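ok, trying the design again with the full structure, not the truncated one.
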């Protein structure tokens, strides 16, 4: 039997369609219900569905009054603030293309994005690196906040296949790529409601991430709002150790976080008395079985994992009615068409193949912006290649078997080693380096870091390399360990065996 799972098709996206209108569709039915609670140390902030939609549509009006129009690009350089999702949805409401970016990006990284993206405007926070001058308008957080009170914009309706937003992902070539997504992407996320979340209208979903993280944006905000649930987000600066008390106080029924947050909560010693919690959700990197088991022991609830990527929302997952077995990622969601491919065709069941998504999937990207060749390289016929390897077991569960390339995973972010290496080799001290390579390594159970290995004829001041990384790379991309070695591990064709670098720890 070949490793092909066709659980579709999903119900077609209606037309005309607008992603923001879909997310806020419950606002007219339940205007006074709390859509969002920002959980604070001393004081909470509550947003009703009516207030949220008014702010989003007011922001849409404000963007139009500044001269932006449908198809223009708005780069989001905002911190961990509610203005981030409001500006994101406000732009989509009027057809402006928002580009959410991590506040951890350095000014150098942002300038490269601006050069290639050519945004019409940049929405910026006071402490977030952003270019001061250029052929774009600058919109401050204060400007965005004032837009909330403006008259509501009309939703710009259209074909669901048209572009709605862009997100950036690390490319295997070392150059970040702009991933274009259609309005239909939000429609496709409904397959996750049953296949992963078990999300209901009366749920109170707490996401541990910041407002400006795409995992939070989708799982923590857009999806609960789409179904009419309440989103719970901790205010900026709340440590993982403080989350259990906040979750108990706010009766969180579902908790979503990256594996590292679960680990910190379990090690905090603060207790995990969570009587309202039904289960947890995990994504971004592989969740270990010991961590899952410990959470179950401490809380009495399961943690259900999902697999997805920047180019396609999660499509393999476990859930309370279909938990993962024997360390598997989970099962293919209803509505999806997934296969495991080898160089010669479909992998037989029980054998390793590359996980691939059929191009008909409504959650799949439109393509990489201004990079048609890069887009086509990711396809083999009608199949989008994820770069990840898996095995389909007899019970139709998919077991993760690692990457098919050298991409690294740093706290849930995929990072190209070539991007990190290029930044380090630009340092003045690098003239003494004869060879340099980076990879991600597991330093202890469930803890992975990026490590840099190098050879040199003379002693290298690693502090200079660290300063170079700080200047040119977001924090999650920077090596946390530098190690001088005698020689790089090379294969028979003189090619770097990156996986063998781990042996030098």
């Amino acid at each position: 039997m070949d490793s092909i799972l066709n659980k579709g098709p999903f119900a077609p996206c209606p037309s005309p369609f607008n992603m923001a209108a879909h997310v806020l569709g419950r606002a007219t039915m339940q205007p006074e219900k709390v859509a969002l609670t920002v959980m604070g140390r001393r004081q909470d902030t509550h947003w009703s569905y009516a207030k949220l939609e008014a702010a989003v549509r007011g922001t849409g009006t404000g963007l139009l009054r500044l001269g932006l129009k449908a198809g223009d690009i708005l780069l989001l350089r905002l911190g961990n603030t509610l203005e981030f999702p409001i500006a994101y949805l406000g732009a989509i409401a009027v057809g402006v293309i928002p580009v959410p970016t991590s506040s951890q990006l350095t000014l150098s990284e942002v300038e490269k994005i601006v050069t290639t993206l050519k945004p019409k405007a940049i929405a910026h926070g006071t402490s977030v690196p952003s270019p001061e001058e250029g052929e774009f308008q600058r919109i401050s957080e204060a400007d965005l906040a004032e837009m909330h009170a403006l008259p509501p914009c009309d939703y710009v309706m259209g074909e669901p296949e048209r572009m709605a937003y862009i997100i950036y992902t690390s490319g295997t070539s070392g150059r970040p790529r702009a991933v274009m997504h259609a309005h239909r992407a939000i429609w496709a996320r409904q397959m996750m409601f049953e296949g992963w979340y078990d999300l209901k209208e009366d749920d109170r979903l707490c996401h541990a991430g910041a407002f400006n993280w795409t995992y939070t944006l989708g799982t923590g905000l857009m999806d609960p709002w789409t179904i009419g649930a309440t989103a719970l987000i901790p205010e900026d600066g709340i440590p993982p150790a403080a989350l259990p008390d906040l979750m108990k106080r706010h009766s969180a029924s579902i908790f979503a976080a990256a594996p590292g947050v679960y680990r910190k909560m379990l090690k905090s010693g603060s207790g995990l008395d969570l009587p309202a919690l039904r289960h947890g959700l995990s994504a971004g990197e592989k969740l270990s079985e010991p961590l899952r088991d410990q959470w179950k022991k401490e809380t009495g609830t399961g943690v259900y994992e999902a697999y997805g990527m920047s180019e396609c929302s999660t499509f393999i997952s476990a859930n309370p009615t279909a938990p993962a077995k024997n360390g598997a990622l989970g099962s293919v969601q209803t509505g999806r068409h997934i296969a495991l491919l080898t160089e010669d065709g479909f992998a037989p069941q029980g054998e390793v193949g590359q996980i691939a998504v059929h191009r008909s999937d409504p959650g799949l990207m439109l393509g990489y912006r201004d990079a048609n060749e890069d887009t086509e390289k990711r396809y083999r016929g009608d199949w989008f290649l994820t770069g990840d390897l898996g095995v389909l077991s007899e019970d139709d569960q998919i077991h993760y078997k690692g990457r098919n390339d050298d991409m690294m995973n740093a706290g849930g972010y995929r990072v190209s080693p070539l991007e990190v290496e290029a930044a380090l080799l630009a340092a003045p001290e690098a003239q003494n380096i004869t060879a340099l390579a980076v990879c991600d390594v597991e330093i202890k159970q469930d803890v992975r870091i990026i490590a840099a290995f190098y050879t040199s004829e003379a002693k290298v001041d690693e502090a200079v390399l660290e300063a170079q990384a700080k200047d040119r790379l977001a924090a999650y991309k920077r090596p946390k360990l530098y190690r001088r070695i005698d020689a790089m591990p090379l294969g028979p064709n003189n090619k770097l065996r990156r996986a063998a670098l781990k042996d030098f720890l």
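Keeping the full-length input from now on. The chain has a mean pLDDT of 93.
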